[in-house]
Amino acid sequence: MKFKTTTQNARRNFLKNLGTGSLAAISLPGILYPKETTAMPVHNGFFLQDEKYWAQIKKQFAVPSNLIMLNAANLCPAPASVNEKVSGIMSGLSKDVSFQYRKQFTEGRKNSIEALAMYTGVAPDEIGITRNTSESNNIIVNGLDLKAGDEIILWDQNHPSNGVAWEERAKRYGFKVKKVSMPENPKSVEELVKPFREAITPQTKLIAFSHISNTSGIALPAKLICELAGSKNILSFVDGAQSLGSTDLNLKLMGCDFYTGSTHKWFMGPLENGILYIKKDKVAQVWPNIISVGWKDSNMTVDEKFCALGQRNEATLAGLVETVNFHKTIGKTNIANRVVQLNDYLKDQIRTKIPAITFLTPISPELSAGITNINLPGKKPADITQKLYDLFGIATAPTGGIRIAPHIYNSLSDIDKLVSALQTLVV
Ligand SMILES: Cc1ncc(COP(=O)(O)O)c(C=O)c1O
């Protein structure tokens, strides 16, 4: 069976399950809806009208009703349409691995790249598909020419693949790594730009930072930091592991030189794909790490120059286009708004019902996004996350504190269940 047929079936089923045509028209009017302004049914100040829509989306995921996944910052389930497409290709490959049959997947990868480029607002030749953010990050770390006398600036909350990786390389090549910290309870965007501005010297060659911290949930104003870097001829490198698929992303508007991400996190599949964006005029400055069949010496796209990593899983590469379709059907802005709405609701409920809980993440949605990281007084995060899973079937992560990362397959009632569970564990 050709994978095209599988795709068409998956898409037809997807729309049928949702009630035909309703998705394109959906709009979320805002993030918070005060009770006083509406006659609509409300749930502690939040419209219930949208819950019906999101309940339809939830049906696209195979997570059973006794489990609640609040761990999008680590891994997300994929919707049915994506799983169907990937497994359709996999079963085709189990029957026929000839070059002749597999020729279609070269086109499949190209389609995925074009779809990703459209989704991120860049040109197709600026995007490549790696295996995950760690790999994309290390391609930049190992690919740039830096030498003794040069300086780079990192956020001290960067993931090891964009932190330790730089430090190891600096030991070998002698450049200087400077790390900046953010204030503990940031109150404004300016407080998040200032540490970078103050660390810049005439020797600074690059600023590399996580768009959203996986440990504190702080969302940095990426556009402002990239603008600052660009104004001083400094390269800007944004690790988007926590923003690809959870925010209203447009890399051209962000203005970064490099951006990386994983599709198995907020992007919702398929497993083990990463993206690597390199702005066209910066491609020549980066050396490739891995060279394999298909690599040539000139006129290469980012995918050709940096992502020829040997034999890959053609099913997940070609399946990626289906995830972009899923995002397109719901709408990038709607998804971003819903993620913020779930986090706003979560913060609101915790503050009202369990005031003893402390937040590592700013309350303001301007300074945070999809992650809410909390601590229960006197309790170890690892014990609480284990109990949440064992006793209540709720998946969170002991990263930074207790890291809660809801996505569009969660409902307000999932958040209610988490808050009730935390109420029993706080004592
Ligand atoms: C900010 C950040 N960068 C990179 C990574 C690594 O992602 P992956 O394991 O998909 O390579 C993570 C994982 O949590 C992350 O949060």
Automatic annotation (TrEMBL):
Gene3D superfamilies: Aspartate Aminotransferase, domain 1, Type I PLP-dependent aspartate aminotransferase-like (Major domain)
Single GO molecular function: transaminase activity
Transmembrane feature ranges: none
Source species, domain of life: Bacteria
InterPro entries, alphabetized: Aminotrans_V_dom (IPR000192), PyrdxlP-dep_Trfase (IPR015424), PyrdxlP-dep_Trfase_major (IPR015421), PyrdxlP-dep_Trfase_small (IPR015422), TAT_signal (IPR006311)
UniProt keyword terms in alphabetical order: Aminotransferase, Pyridoxal phosphate, Transferase
Stretches assigned to the Aminotransferase class V domain: 99-396
UniProt-listed PANTHER family: BLR1280 PROTEIN, L-CYSTEINE DESULFHYDRASE
UniProt protein name: Aminotransferase class V-fold PLP-dependent enzyme
